[in-house]
Design a protein that fits this description.
This is Alanine dehydrogenase. The chain has helices spanning 8-18, 20-39, 85-89, 115-133, 148-158, 173-182, 195-201, 245-250, 258-264, 273-276, 284-289, 292-295, 310-327, and strands at 3-6, 50-54, 60-69, 73-81, 94-101, 108-113, 140-144, 165-169, 190-192, 204-207, 229-232, 252-255, 302-305, 331-333. The protein has 351 residues and is of the alpha/beta class. Helix content is 36%, strand content 21%. The protein folds into two domains: 3-117 and 310-348, ornithine cyclodeaminase, domain 1 (2-Layer Sandwich), CATH 3.30.1780.10; 123-305, Rossmann fold, CATH 3.40.50.720.
Length: 351
């Protein structure tokens, strides 16, 4: 009846024992399977996330993301987005915790740190979308934003494509310059380049920035490869977007969670007449289930509008729990009170 706890020590053990590549591969594989089932309507779509904005002492949001499949348990992630964390507190921009509940009783089964897992599943989801919409022979990756997400975006893409060159840009020059050291394990050369050069030369681009609400696009409109695929990762608030509307209007757009993307993703720029007119294409789950719909667009501009939703976290947590069981890691704690009499809350004490 105890709750399984998976924290820093356990996740470090998983990473060092299983290895980054094998862990990423397992999550990519599980997401592909789970999203395909979603597109086939064999799984439920997670509700759109909810939360509140924080203004003081630092700006940011705290959100909760629930997922429930009958017979598969309930996963709820709480996630905080705080762009000032690295500068002010030496903490990641995104902090999260995952909880797994029994679907019949509501009992808390697992409590796990979600920081590494969130970065992994976000990169893995981009790899899934890119494998559908980008040319398989893509060799040049562009990264706009060189924070923590850039590491797992690039890692996942190198597991899926024959990446030979990486172009990176960040408004903080030290972040862009430091990405090569953080991704040295991939053995891929990285060059700092301005956004217009990245747009013109890349086969695949991932944008993962902390741009503010109402700020200009982080990627310009201009010349690009006809087959360019973009993973737009950073839009997660109403009014916060990364791509020029003109670029979106020319693209085939695949949202991960259509309702959520229209509210706070890149798709919010195409709400109303544009959305009704079909500018926004099938969801990622639908493309996974019916891949021919994706393959038909590989020679044109495509955009994956990634806002992140709880099924992805549910599936990634499944992978973590399987590996934790294989390795025998994780501590247990009696977190929930269990009264001797289910009708008497005071009966936890025999006094």
């Amino acid at each position: 009846m105890d709750t399984l706890l998976i924290g820093h020590a356990e996740i470090e053990r998983v990473l060092t024992t299983v290895g980054r590549d094998a862990l990423m591969d397992r999550i990519i594989e599980r997401l592909t399977k789970g999203l395909t089932e979603l597109g086939q309507r064999a799984r439920e779509l997670s509700p759109a996330r909810s939360g509140f904005e924080r203004e003081h002492p630092t700006r940011g949001v705290l959100e909760w993301m629930p997922h429930y499949d009958s017979g598969q348990g309930i996963t709820i992630k709480t996630v905080a987005y705080s762009p000032e964390n690295p500068r002010l507190f030496g903490l990641p921009t995104i902090l999260s915790t995952l909880a797994r509940y029994d679907g019949d009783t509501g009992r808390l089964l697992v409590l796990a740190d979600g920081n590494v897992l969130t970065a992994l599943r976000t990169g893995a989801t981009s790899a899934v979308a890119s494998s559908l919409l980008a040319r398989p022979e893509s060799t040049v990756v562009g990264l706009i934003g060189a924070g923590a997400q850039a590491v797992t975006q690039l890692h996942a893409l190198t597991r899926t494509f024959p990446v030979e060159r990486v172009l990176v840009w960040d408004v903080r020059k030290e972040n862009a310059a430091g990405l090569a050291a953080r991704t040295a394990f991939l053995g891929v050369p990285i060059t700092v380049a301005p956004p217009d050069v990245i747009l013109a030369r890349a086969d695949i681009i991932s944008t993962a920035t902390s741009t503010g609400v109402g700020e200009p696009p982080v990627l310009p409109y201009g010349d690009h490869q006809e087959h360019l695929h973009i993973n737009a990762i950073g839009s997660d608030l109403v009014g916060k977007t990364e791509l020029p509307r003109r670029l979106l209007r020319e693209a085939f757009i695949c949202p991960d969670h259509p309702e959520q993307a229209l509210r706070e993703g890149e798709c919010q720029q195409l709400a109303g007449d544009d959305a009704a007119g079909g500018a926004i294409g099938p969801s990622l789950g639908e493309l996974c289930a019916f891949t021919s719909q994706a393959v038909a667009h590989r020679d044109r501009l495509t955009v994956f509008d990634s806002t992140g939703f709880a099924l992805e976290d549910h599936l990634a947590l499944d992978v973590l729990l399987e590996i934790a069981d294989e390795l025998g890691v994780g501590s247990r704690a009696e977190l929930e009170t269990r009264p001797h009499d289910a009708f008497d809350p005071y009966s936890i004490s025999r006094e």
